[in-house]
Amino acid sequence: MKQIIYHSRPFGFDEAMLSGILLQARRNNARDGITGALICRQELYLQLLEGPEEAIDRLYAKIAQDDRHADVQVAYVAIVEARMFPDWEMLDDSMPGVTFSCEGIASGAIEAATVDELRGVFALLAERAKG
Ligand SMILES: Cc1cc2nc3c(=O)[nH]c(=O)nc-3n(C[C@H](O)[C@H](O)[C@H](O)COP(=O)(O)O)c2cc1C
User: Is 113 in the pocket of ligand 1 (CB under 6 A)?
Assistant: First the structure.
């Protein structure tokens, strides 16, 4: 199974756009055996996608072309045994400031983060989602 983490800059972000993306993601991902999480801030999308390799490659190609965001950059790719978000077609985390502050994002915290730090953010989310 393939896992990827990428980040991008929302293009004209608003709640309606985010709901639209999540609706589309959950419908398609259920069909394609994909799970993951999307962290969303005014200035940032940070998404983890996991599932069958071909399905992930196909989805990432579509996402990279999506004009609702820009500067799409892969931060991490791996072949893994177990999913981090087995129960989530697409978990969303739009609580401001919980993981990365707006100021931090603006000053390049995501670009500067190590792969372990990025994975750590998703591990924390997965833990919290279990309740
Ligand atoms: C930040 C972001 C995250 C997205 N995540 C997903 C996703 O997890 N699954 C998905 O199918 N589409 C996702 N999309 C939408 C895709 O880019 C594309 O519009 C969609 O897959 C096309 O679906 P359709 O073939 O049903 O029209 C995302 C788009 C953005 C901007």
Answer: no
